[in-house]
Amino acid sequence: MTSTLLVVQFVLAILLTIIILLQKSSSIGLGAYSGSNESLFGAKGPGNFLTKATMAIGLIFVINTLVLGYMYNEKRNESAIDNVKTETLIPSMPVPTTEQAPAAPTSAPVPSVPAAK
C-alpha cells in the first residue's frame, strides 16, 4: 500500500509541475509553446481550467503526503523484535525419556590397611 501511494506521489508531483509551468505568467511561461491552448480550453484560454486543475491536484498531493507520513510513522513505531516468531528462536527438542540413574553405592569400600610387623 505504501509503495503504491509513493508512486502516486511521484506522478502527482510531475503533473503538478507540468500544470504550473503551463499557466500564463508575466513572461507567458511554457504556455507559449503550445499554440492550441486557446481552442482546447475554450474562449477564455487555459487560465481558469489550469487554475482549477492546479488547485485539485495540489489538494490531492497534500492529502497523499499526509497519508504517506502517517503510514511511514506507523511502520517506524514497530520494533523488529515484534516481528520475530519466538518458536523459531529455541529449537523444539523432544523431551528425552530419562532412565533411572544408577543408584549411589550404599557402603563405600574400606581400604585395606597393611598389617604391621
Strand content: under 5%
Instruction: Write the element-wise H/E pattern from the N-terminal end onward.
Output: HHH
Q: Could you give the count of β-strands? A: 0
Low-confidence stretches: none
CA distance, first residue to last residue: 100 Å
Helix percentage range: 40-55%
The helix count comes to 3
Radius of gyration: 40 Å
Q: Main β-sheet: number of strands, strand sense, barrel status?
A: none
Task: Report the principal-axis shape.
Answer: rod-shaped
Architecture overview:
This protein has helices spanning about 1-20, 35-40, 45-75. With about 120 residues, it is mostly helical. It has a domain at about 1-80.
Briefly characterize the structure:
This protein is an all-alpha fold. The protein contains three helices and no strands.
Topology:
Layout: H1 2-22, H2 37-41, H3 46-77
Helix pairs in contact: 1-3
Main features:
mainly alpha
